[in-house]
Write a structure and sequence with these properties.
The chain folds into 2 domains: about 1-115 and about 260-275, Rossmann fold; about 120-255, Tumour Suppressor Smad4. About 20% of the residues lie in helices and about 35% in strands. The protein has helices spanning about 15-25, 35-40, 50-55, 65-75, 105-110, 180, 265-275, and strands at about 1-5, 30-35, 60-65, 85-90, 115-125, 130-135, 135-140, 150-155, 160-165, 165-170, 195-200, 210-215, 220, 230-235, 235-240, 245-260. The strands form 2 sheets. Strands 1, 2, 3, 4, 5, 6, 8, 9, 13 and 16 form a 10-stranded mixed beta sheet that branches. Strands 12-11-10-7-14-15 form a 6-stranded antiparallel beta sheet, with no helix packed on it. A hairpin with a 2-residue loop joins strand 5 (about 115-125) and strand 6.
Length: about 280
């Protein structure tokens, strides 16, 4: 058994947590796979390996940090669909659902086959001959001029609408609690298959978020007279988006397998993360 560890070394608790995790894995006679940068940073006796080695050899990848760390792990895994366990080292963390205190029990459950996994839909994004995958979203944002941009949206060659706005977000159900939510989009149950389009500060009162079937292929064109924009995929890949250019988004053929707490419902996580108040009635 080999387990990969991806950590955000900028997090205060990262070093301590990784070292504790290494000791625990050693007790279980499990070989840890650390990124070279992490191994060098910790000055540990475990030799660092490349990202491709982690992806090809690990039966589980632990992402220690915040949602950005887990998104990076998801991009690394790609179509291989290696299970990913997200551990929150501070912050909101919708994707990193385990606390540091829960990691050992979560690993015990995984090793004994008693864990719970959720398959999450992934977006496939094509732009200028490049292929990207997004677990959360891809967004089109205003460029250096900081002026509104004009986008035209089609699904399977059918015209949908035109947005004059600061931009728009195309999100998965998993990403519905990220950038899209901040822009006023709805929360979609994360294991559903759907594509969510949320305009950013649109210049039209009637412009509202749109939830589409996952089978739709979405094309977004930057209007030829628009200001330039920026395409951002999962907050980590950035490309200049020029007037007249197009991007295409569709459901990817693979999914991301997230290891999630088996004794917590999604609604419980929402209540905790969103700070919702109130208790169920005694008759419920």
């Amino acid at each position: 058994m080999k387990i990969g560890i991806i950590g955000n070394l900028k997090k205060r608790a990262a070093s301590e947590t990784i070292n504790k995790l290494l000791s625990y894995l050693e007790q279980k006679e499990i070989e840890p796979l650390l990124e070279t940068e992490t191994a060098n940073f910790l000055k540990c006796r475990h030799k660092g390996v490349t990202q491709s080695e982690i992806v090809n050899l690990a039966q589980l990848i632990i992402a220690l940090g915040g949602d950005g760390t887990l998104l990076r792990a998801a991009r690394m895994v790609g179509t291989k669909e290696t299970p990913i366990m997200g551990v929150n080292l501070g912050g909101l963390g919708f994707l990193t659902e385990f606390s540091v205190e829960e990691v050992k029990q979560a690993l015990d459950d995984f090793l004994s086959g008693k864990h719970r996994e959720e398959p999450r839909m992934v977006l496939s994004v094509q732009f200028r001959g490049e292929d990207f995958f997004a677990l959360n979203d891809c967004s089109i944002n205003m460029g250096p001029s900081c002026r509104v941009i004009e986008t035209i949206i089609y699904t399977d060659s059918s015209y949908v609408t035109r947005f004059v706005a600061d931009g728009l977000v195309i999100a998965t159900p998993t990403g519905s609690t990220a950038y899209s939510l901040a822009a006023g989009g709805p929360i979609i149950f994360p294991t559903m298959a759907a594509i969510l389009i949320t305009p950013l500060c649109p210049h039209a009162l009637a412009a509202r978020p749109l939830v589409l079937p996952a089978e739709e292929s979405i094309t977004v064109e930057l209007e030829r007279n628009s200001e330039p924009a920026i395409l951002i995929v999962d907050g980590q890949e950035r490309r200049e988006f020029r007037p007249g250019e197009k991007i295409t988004c569709r459901k990817a053929t693979h999914k991301v397998r997230l290891v999630v707490p088996k004794n917590k419902s999604y609604y419980e996580i929402l209540r905790s993360k969103m700070k919702w108040s109130g208790k169920p009635s005694e008759s419920f």
